[in-house]
Amino acid sequence: MIESIQNAVDFLSKGGIVMIFIGLCSLTAIVLFIERWIALRTASRQARRLESGLIDAISQGQFERASSLCDTHPCALATLAQSGIDHRDLTREALQEVLSDEGRRQEARLNRFIPAVGAISTISPLLGLLGTVTGMIAVFSRLADEYASGAVANPGMLAGGIWEALLTTAAGLCVAIPAFVLHRILTGQLDAILLQLESTATRIVDILTPAPKASYPVFAADAAPAPQKNT
What we know:
Order of helices and strands: HHHHHHH
Number of domains: 1
Radius of gyration: 31 Å
Largest sheet: none
């Protein structure tokens, strides 16, 4: 086991110093994904537990009960709902603006670290390419020195230097592809939560400040007279 790990380390070390940065990118992507996945999953679970009871309490005007439910299930939805409850005396337009601002703040909080995972999926292959380019430069620099000294170039040395240089490109892609998949998973979770926040916020606004109903004439006499045709 220890020997296998040592062989793997020796193999990867042939890629040069760039392999260290690629390895750090891999470790960072894993840590950020686990942190965000747990946070988003917890927020989604808490929101599902909260939503039905919260809407029921607000519909019945039991705002203290609604606030208690928000305290019991701390999540983005609870913060958004509490903001609506605290500003329930505002007009419909003002309440919509308050909830919109709070929704943007919650989105920024939930979206934390997700762009970093996406950035790693972009940076990793570029680091791999950088390692390949610098490795190729080193190989051909040694080849030029051998020619300058009058020695015959060794094709094996050239081939060995090239595959070591290409190793960083392969490593960069091995990090970038899973990081891209992890980023899409987190983005999908975030979109589902934001959709739930938007839907619940709309329901809260409709309950606290019902939209004015359009008025229609009750009697035919109240309606505008129909235009008469010229004879």
